[in-house]
Write a structure and sequence with these properties.
- The complex is a heterodimer.
- Chain A has helices at residues 49-56, 98-108, 113-126, 142-154, 172-187, 199-205, 223-227, 242-252, 269-281, 296-307, and strands at 2-14, 22-34, 38-42, 64-69, 72-73, 83-86, 160-164, 191-195, 208-213, 216-222, 228-237, 255-258, 261-265, 286-293.
- By secondary structure, chain A is an alpha/beta fold.
- In chain A, the strands form 3 sheets. Chain A has a 6-stranded mixed sheet with strand order 6-7-8-3-9-10, sandwiched between helices. A 4-stranded antiparallel sheet of chain A has the order 2-1-4-5, with helices on one face. A 4-stranded antiparallel sheet of chain A has the order 12-13-11-14.
- In chain A, strand 1 and strand 2 form a beta hairpin.
- Chain B has one domain (2-218).
- Chain B is built from 10 helices and no strands.
- The N and C termini of chain B lie far apart (71 Å).
- Classes of the chains: A alpha/beta, B mainly alpha.
- The A-B interface holds A 13, 54, 57-61, 77-78, 80-81, 83, 85, 87-93, 105, 108-110, 152, 162 and B 45-58, 218, 220-221.
């Protein structure tokens, strides 16, 4: 069941007040997020990622297109009871303590004070903020604010969680804890919509990823689909010599990485087997053959770089 | 002798209370404007409004809650201050002037009328400074000038078109000066000449609130 679905979603902004000039933030954007998955949205600055999240949450209004959350159009506000949101650079009232902020936002989410207090205890412990619960927010560091923001987003036990740069300002250990928490939430059937610039992090935890550029969907798929390069194979062999190198370069158009590694673009399995036979004839020991994979980062840079 | 002494005490207490109301009107309401003028702009700051609008609360209710919250805050502050002064003054003098307490809801109403304007400016401009400047300019410059239009302005300006325009603004804008006069009349026991300034000011408040809600419901954040 799709938890989020958009069809031909378009958003235009006025470039300036009273100006007729429009800026296209999203252009005919269609996608779906399935229940129980961690979905990552990637794109350069100004690609429309935050606009998309804001439209899904009713913070910004669409210009045209269909938007459904939990299979209902978002004009019906009731879906927000089942949603949690951590915005980028969020600001809580600085005069409140961490616990008071959670009580305030929890009650806005439709929870009773008793339930909020109970859940606040649980989530302050999970995000490792229990000892700071009675400290005023103005004294919090960036990482502590982020942890409190995460607790706020999870407090009402939402089925769908929007996280905009959740690990921003958090130290590596804290990032690992947040990743583990997200994986735990996924295990309990929650759907997570993640916007992060840390591609290595997205690669680690996301089931599916969509890449946005200039308001349009460039590509989407599972991390494996997006990072595998279909026809390039990496060979790891025992020591080679110059003569063998020359043969590899001329006959197989290999790309030599070093004396023990090279890659080849195989047009067919037959060609791949021909190379293996050639290496065996030359008494070269093959230590490994694997389909080359890009990192999400290199794929992203290649894809966006070629478009801009 | 005793009767004229009691009358003197009554006059002294009433005079003090009227002075207190004028002081409240000038100082307390001014400080209250400054205190509440940041409510809306700070709520609309990026990162704050995002969380608020992601909650299952309608935009209309957010504005109404901010309005009622601000009004309640001022009502409680005025109750504490005026109620405290009334108790001390009455206990010391032995003269319990109950109409003085009516000034609490009336001053709260005066505040609510201008607060609706502060909300409208806050929602449209997202600026605390602009909210303070415009509301102060209205309360302490425009409204007093319009209040004395018949006694002062019209003796200087005889053109009927300009007089019509001035009258037009008098009727559509809030009338804190007239309301202050009504409060004074109630405390001193004088008959109130007309409640029109109250009705037209309340209409202004409702219009400002409606416009704020209309704008806030359509705005992208």
């Amino acid at each position: 069941m799709p938890v989020i679905s958009t069809k031909d979603l378009t958003k235009e902004y006025q470039s300036k007040t009273f100006s007729k000039e429009k800026i296209l933030a999203l252009s005919n954007f269609s996608f779906e997020v399935q229940s129980g998955e961690i979905f990552g949205i990637l794109g350069p600055n100004g690609a429309g990622k935050t606009t998309l999240i804001k439209i899904l949450l009713g913070i910004t209004f669409r210009t045209k297109g269909d938007v459904k959350v939990f299979e209902k159009d978002i004009t019906d506000d009731s879906y927000k009871l089942k949603v949690g949101y951590l915005p980028e650079n969020h600001r809580f009232p600085s005069y409140l303590t961490g616990e008071q902020a959670l009580v305030f936002y929890g009650m806005l989410s439709g929870m009773s004070k008793k339930d909020v207090k109970k859940k606040a205890d649980e989530y302050l412990q999970i995000v490792d903020m229990e000892k700071w619960r009675n400290t005023k927010i103005k004294k919090y560091s960036k990482g502590m604010l982020q942890r409190l923001g995460l607790a706020q987003a999870l407090l009402n036990d939402p089925e769908l969680i929007f996280l905009d740069e959740p690990t921003d300002g958090v130290d590596p250990i804290g990032r690992k804890q947040i990743r583990d928490l997200l994986m735990h939430l996924k295990g309990t059937g929650k759907t997570i919509f993640l916007n992060s610039h840390l591609l290595s992090e997205v690669e680690l935890i996301c089931d599916r990823v969509a890449i946005l550029n200039k308001g349009s969907l460039v590509t989407s798929g599972t991390v494996d689909e997006l990072t595998s390069v279909s026809d390039t194979f990496r060979f790891t062999v025992s020591e080679t010599n110059d003569e063998l190198m020359q043969s590899l370069l001329s006959a197989f158009k290999a790309t030599i990485k070093n004396s023990r590694e090279f890659t080849i673009k195989a047009v067919s399995g037959e060609e791949l087997n021909k190379l293996i036979d050639f290496l065996r004839q030359k008494n070269v020991m093959i230590l490994g053959v694997e389909k080359e994979k890009n990192t999400l980062e290199s794929m992203f840079i290649n894809l966006i770089g070629s478009q801009n | 002798m005793e009767s004229s002494g009691e009358e003197g005490v009554k006059q002294l207490v009433t005079g003090f209370e009227v002075g207190m109301i004028n002081l409240s009107y000038l100082l307390v309401i001014t400080f209250c404007f400054i205190a509440v003028s940041s409510f809306i702009p700070s709520m609309l700051e990026k990162g704050n409004i995002d969380i608020l609008l992601s909650k299952p609360v309608s935009r209309t209710n957010i504005i109404l809650a901010k309005f009622l919250g601000g009004v309640l805050l001022i009502f409680l502050s005025l109750t504490y201050m005026i109620g405290g002064v009334w108790i001390i003054l009455s206990a010391k003098s032995g003269y319990w002037n109950f109409p003085f307490l009516y000034s609490i809801p009336w001053l709260t109403l005066s505040f609510a009328i201008i607060y609706a304007l502060i909300i409208l400016i806050g929602v449209t401009s997202q600026s605390t400074i602009l909210s303070i400047i415009i509301s102060m300019f209205l309360v302490f410059v425009i409204c007093p000038v319009l209040y004395v239009r018949e006694t002062v302005i019209f003796s200087l300006v005889t053109n009927s078109t300009i007089q019509f325009i001035i009258n037009f603004f008098y009727y559509i804008l809030p009338k804190p000066g007239d309301i202050n006069q009504i409060i004074t009349d109630i405390i001193t026991g004088n008959p109130v000449k007309s409640y029109m300034p109250v009705f037209s000011s309340v209409l202004f408040m409702l219009a400002a609130l409606s416009l704020s809600i209309f704008y806030f419901r359509r705005k992208d954040y």
